[in-house]
Amino acid sequence: MASLKDLKNRITSVKSTQKITKAMQMVAASKLRRAQEAAEAARPYAERMESVLAGLGAAVKDSPGASPLLIGTGKEDVHLVIVATSERGLCGGFNANIVKAARPHIEQLIASGKTVKILCIGKKGYALLRRDFGDFIIDLKDLSAVKRLSFSDAQPIASEVLAMFERGEFDVASLFYAKFQSVLVQVATNQQLIPAPIPEVSEGMGDELGGAIYDYEPDEAAILADLLPRNVAVQIYRGLLENAASEQGSRMTAMDNATRNAGDMIDSLSITYNRTRQANITKELIEIISGAEAL
Amino acid sequence: MADTLHLEIVSPERLLKDAEVAMVIVPGMDGDFTALPQHAPLMSTIRPGVVEIFASEGAEAERLFLKGGLAQISSAGLTILAEETIALDSVDSDDLAQKISDTREDVQDAKDDIERSAAETELAWMTALADEIAA
Question: Fewer CB within 10 A of the end CB, N or C, for chain A?
Fold first, then answer.
């Protein structure tokens, strides 16, 4: 049986842990709001880019000399897998979920005899993947210095990926990240970057783009060639934004749970503490009384 | 007939501008063009240069430097997709000159064509910006 002093110490320690988790939850909540705003602000650009790509891509796809970014290199031998995770832990299953989605994908590629290269964004995913796929990891992008994610953080990663593609170092690139659905739900997503999937022309977009006959300057292919590398950067940026929101959402939930757990623990410890205290008093009383009776 | 042009400048980070304007001069890849209300549908890439926005006829132009992008004119108006805009008066010319010379060195030192072309793209917008400031 733990002594009263031990119990008291434990209660204090759990209480201070609770304070920390509570503070982290609140920080995550406010960061989440900012991350969501950023993700929302990025939407108009991505939507317009998508509608332009949908219109142009369909037109150019079958013509010879279309950009390899669109139609691929004609082979599928070398795959680049970009795994975007967080820089910090204590965010529940966030990193584990992304890695859990990426792992079978990588294993399957290896099993079918493809060469796999892994690019990690965020050191948490790197730590998880290093053990099994250490030899395949070509680089780790550390974004821990970044306070507020901006497009200029995604751009260098994109240009590096594009340079690798131009050098023929890989044929297919895909990006793993967690798509933010709600504070409770984040879906690990695999998105193909290169060759770029052509978005389906939906009803609304058709009106906007297909309804009018455009003049193209210089021409469709040139516009597309200019647009596709940008699209890669935008997709990575979007992935990172979604990831940032998901990370905060996940951390908020995890910290909320931890705070509640700590509360439960304090309750049960307090009960034990009180019981032990009472037991001690009773014991002392019995000792006194039986001592007096013996006289 | 609409006598204003709906202008939107969108960057990946946010909607930079959303306004009704009279006229916009866009630095297209094949030369500058002026977008007026009721312009025919057009899609053009943008070379590094200055967009001049006239809120109303005869008003002073608002000048924004673009590193490049895409302009799309449709019946809904003019949409410019741009990675980055720079207000001309916020540029430190000494700093820019330094960056230009750095990038020139990068072009010299580039290990292969891919690096060189990346550095040359950087250089292109920097020199265009420097020209605009000098002008």
Answer: C
Cα–Cα dist A105/B83, whole Å: 32
B106 shares its domain with B63: no
Chain A neighbors of B74, CB-CB under 8 A:
208-209, 212, 214
CATH of the domain at B73: 2.60.15.10
pTM of the model: 0.84
Give the minimum alpha-carbon distance from A138 to chain B in angstroms, rounded to a whole number: 19
Taking the Cβ of residue A102 and every Cβ of chain B, the question of whether any pair is shorter than 8 Å is answered with no
Residues spanned by the domain of B127: 92-134
Supply B5's token pair. 């042009």
Rounded Cα–Cα distance for residues A26 and A31 (Å): 9
Handedness of CA A60, A80, A192, A225 (dihedral sign): negative
Number of domains into which chain B is organized: 2
pLDDT by residue for chain A (295 residues), tens digit each?
A: 578 999 999 999 999 999 999 999 999 999 999 999 988 888 888 888 888 887 777 777 666 666 788 777 778 889 999 999 999 889 988 999 999 999 999 999 999 989 999 999 999 999 999 988 988 999 898 888 888 888 888 888 998 998 888 888 899 999 999 999 888 899 999 988 888 887 665 544 444 445 557 778 788 778 888 888 888 888 899 899 999 999 999 999 999 999 999 999 999 999 999 999 999 999 999 999 999 999 8
B47 SS3 class: coil
Phi-psi region of A92 (alpha: psi -120 to 50; beta: other; left: phi over 0): left
B10 and B57 fall within a common domain: yes
Distant-in-sequence, close-in-space partners of A37: CB < 8 Å, separation ≥ 6: none
Is B98 in the same domain as B66?
Answer: no
Nearest residue to A108 (alpha-carbon basis) of A174, A161, A164: A174
Asked if residue B82 and residue B104 are part of one domain, the reply reads no
Q: Which amino acid is at A237?
A: Y
Residues B79 and B128 in one domain: no
- Same-domain check for residues B15 and B70: yes
| Shared domain check, B126 and B110 | yes
Residue among A213, A223, A234 whose CB faces B41 most closely: A213
